[in-house]
Design brief:
Number of strands: 0
Shape: globular
Number of helices: 10
Distance between the termini: 31 Å
Strand content: under 5%
Order of helices and strands: HHHHHHHHHH
Oligomer: single chain
Structural class: mainly alpha
Length: about 220
């Protein structure tokens, strides 16, 4: 039992080391944002940063934003999923950091990084080597969906949750348990609270294809 415990400990530490390496590469690559020497351009600056400020300014006094009086003569903000009015991640970052540029960058990079974390979680469930998970996670974090659409926060939010949802679906197959499947649904639903609806539908399509493949190629 002692030997088994030591093997588990060493295995877990390797996963943390390789996750740390992937995280370091990700943060160094975005160091200009972290140091305040760069900002998002186009829609990141003119659309989604103001959205985050609006949500944060309501979160600080303990309220959810329901109406945007400054856009197009007034818009029902609660009915725009891309705004993230009810997203736990969006509201939490707004509550902690307020409606600031640093708060938006923190939210942006944290949600982006979640995609790489999801790859690590899925890889561990599939019993892949930690170094392989690091390679695939970096490929995922710097693929064209992120680097080509980084200005569009709702696309980043949707894409980052895809590996997390697949991770729980795979766990449900591996354990023949209902709980991971429910968790997959909860993650998918949470992603829909701050993401582009079209990509949420595509995520569901990927899950169906994964489940079919897992069932046919057991």
């Amino acid at each position: 039992h002692v030997a088994d415990a030591s093997v588990v400990s060493v295995g877990s530490s390797q996963w943390f080391v390789w996750l740390g390496i992937a995280t370091a590469v990700f943060l160094v690559s975005n160091q200009a944002l972290l140091r305040g020497r760069a900002v998002g351009i186009w829609d990141a600056e003119s659309v989604f940063y103001p959205y985050q400020v609006l949500v944060a300014d309501h979160a600080r006094p303990g309220r959810f934003v329901s109406w945007d009086p400054w856009s197009s003569g007034g818009l029902p903000a609660a009915g725009e999923p891309q705004l993230g009015a009810y997203s736990p991640l969006t509201v939490a970052v707004g509550l902690v950091m307020g409606g600031t540029g640093a708060g938006y960058i923190t939210y942006w990079l944290a949600v982006w990084w979640l995609g790489g974390l999801g790859i690590f979680m899925l890889a561990r469930t599939l019993r892949a080597p930690p170094w392989g998970a690091c390679v695939v996670a970096l490929g995922y974090l710097f693929c064209g969906v992120y680097t080509g659409q980084a200005q569009h926060m709702p696309l980043t939010a949707a894409f980052s949750f895809l590996p997390l949802v697949i991770w729980r679906v795979e766990a449900a197959f591996a354990s023949a348990s209902l709980r991971p499947a429910v968790e997959a649904g909860a993650l998918w639903g949470m992603s829909a609270l701050a993401a582009y609806p079209g990509l949420i539908v595509i995520t569901a399509g990927f899950v169906v294809l994964w489940a079919m493949g897992r069932w046919l190629c057991d």
